[in-house]
Structure formats: structure tokens, C-alpha cells
């Protein structure tokens, strides 16, 4: 059993789960596994994956996990925490098939339930792949020490975002332990709630792309950013205030990000495109709205390594608070090629009895666009992103 703990999942899945339950309890969705790297999966992989998914039904939140979430996640109400205590994964929501080396995984069900599958399912796929291909991790602790010390020398605030594409839970565990021992005040925490509990650090995370994607599909792409942000504020009242900007491109986001929201949200997260251009664009936006950039944060999180962090930090040069959420480079830098994969929301509806609408994501680079190609083109036309 690869996933052994209920909270071996990322915080943002729980935070969006609460928002869904509060505002859209009848919403019904489909997710799809996207194998961007075109990896060939070994024979029998789907059967092993089905066994792992079936075992998820046995996971239950422990008293220790509940106490940790109650203590650290002050923005979760007691009703929601009690709900998590009673939650059980339903394997019938996940359909897995394999033809040759091609793996297909689909998730369907009420959004408030199915939202938890993405991260642990990807972690299982990654770890199982390396198990079945006989890969052996190398220099895990040594590399983690080097990274922690280098980031500390740069005075770079950093967090672990590496659950989804990690080599294994054991590697992830060693990495967080090493960061806790060597990162000092610059190691800010991890997106993984269980490991945050185990090492008494901060669970990190806010909202995912799917939050914006749902609002775009249901309310229209021009209204998506404002609707998504206002809905988030309705639920969290200013807590969990780092917003993604690139679901429908950051240019469109900043056209919609109004003064109230800009003042209320603590900052934004860069997740695609050119980080240096993004830095200037974000600082300019805050200055134009008479907001001190030093009172805000940019969390940089796309494909980072030490050189990239150094380049960005030098360019930022103290003009805004910069922080770094690093994923695969932390948890799967062990001598293998990590899987290039995602699980994305692809269709949504406000009620199970209604028709599905496509959900798409544009990003700040076309290579990360996801969703139905025709709907992507329609979204671009609606937003004026094509001639």
C-alpha cells in the first residue's frame, strides 16, 4: 500500500474541498490523467494501480491528524474537520484501463468528493512506475542537504510542493526531514499535510487551477477570475490569500484583479511563462494601484532548480517579497527521469442531471494548455487572445 496516511495529500486539495462543499455541493465533474511525457507503462501496471486505488478506501483520518489540522489550519471550520474525519475514498469513482504501454485514468463524481483523488493518485502512479521498472534512488539525503544549504545561502524562502511527482514516499520523507534540519528559518513548510505534521512545520497551499477552470466553464471566461476570487473570499475571508494568475493567462488575470481583491490577497503565484517578465508585470500592477509591492508576495513555482531560483532572486532584488515552491526537483532528483504527467479537470456541471461543459486551462505558455482543443480556441476568442 503506497498511500498509508489519510493526510498524505496536499493542503490545497482540502482547502478547495471546503470551498466546493460550501458553495457548490451539487457540482459534478470529470478529471483525466494526461501523460505529457508519453511514458510507456509496464505490463500489468493498471492491475497494480487498481489494487492501490482499492486500498485507499481503508484510509481514515487519525486523531493525531485531526488535532494537527485543528491546530494549524485555523481557516477550516470544525464541521469540515469532522467531515474529513468521516470521509472515505470511493474507488468506484476512478476508472483505470491499459492498452499496451498506454495508461488511461478517469475520475468522475461529485466534485466535493472527487477533488481529493488527484494528488495521491499521481503519487501512486509515480512510485508504482519506479517500483515496477526497478529504479533505485541515489544520493537522496546528500542532494537535499546541498539544496537546503544553497537556498539558505541565497536567503531564499522555500517550501516543498513535491507530493504529486515524487519518486516515493520514503524519498519525500527524507527530503523534508533534511530540510527541517538544514534549512533553518528559510524552510517555510510543505504542501504535504502528513509530512507537515510529522516534522512540525507549516502546511502550505491555497487554491488550484481547477477553481478558476470551474468558474470559467460555468460562468464564462470573462467572468471567471472575478467570480473565482470573490467566491474564495466568501469562504476564507482573506485567509489562504495567494492566488494563481495563469489559468486564462496572467494578462487577463490582471485586467480582472480589482483593487479590493489586490489589497485583500497576500500575493500571487507564478506557475508558467517568463518569471522575470512576470515579476515586472506584477510589481507594475501593484504600483499602479498604489499598493506597496513590499507588502505583497510572489510565490514562484514552475520547474525550479537552484540556478533558476538564483536567477529570479537576483532579478527581484528586494523589490517584492519572493518565495519559492519547489516540487519535482526536491522529491524526484534521484537519478531517474521523473514522469511528466498531470490530472486535470476536463468537464463540469452544476448538477448531476445537467449537461457537461468543457473545462480548460490556458497558462502563460501554450505547451501547458489543457482541455478540449475546440473549447481552448473558443476561450481564446472570448478573451481576445486570437485575431
What does this protein look like?
- This protein is of the alpha/beta class and 387 residues long.
- It has two domains: 11-135 and 340-378, nicotinate phosphoribosyltransferase, CATH 3.20.140; 140-331, nicotinate phosphoribosyltransferase.
- The protein has helices at 11-23, 45-55, 63-72, 78-86, 111-114, 118-132, 140-154, 169-182, 193-198, 209-219, 224-236, 250-256, 259-264, 275-288, 306-316, 328-331, 373-382; strands spanning 28-34, 94-99, 102-110, 157-160, 187-190, 242-244, 267-270, 297-300, 321-326, 342-349, 357-358.
- The strands form two sheets. The chain has a six-stranded parallel β-sheet with strand order 5-4-9-8-7-6. The protein has a five-stranded antiparallel β-sheet with strand order 2-3-1-10-11.
- β7 (267-270), α14 and β8 (297-300) form a beta-alpha-beta unit.
- α1 (11-23) packs across α11 (224-236) and α7 runs parallel beside α15 (306-316).
- The termini are far apart.
- The model has no long low-confidence stretch (mean pLDDT 97).
On the 0 to 100 scale, the average pLDDT is: 97
Number of strands: 11
Beta percentage is 5-15%
Termini, distance in Å?
A: 51 Å
Number of helical elements: 17
> What would the principal axes of the Cα set say about the shape?
globular
Structural category? alpha/beta
Question: Helix coverage percent of residues?
Answer: 40-55%
Question: How many domain modules?
Answer: 2
Extract low-pLDDT stretches. Answer: none
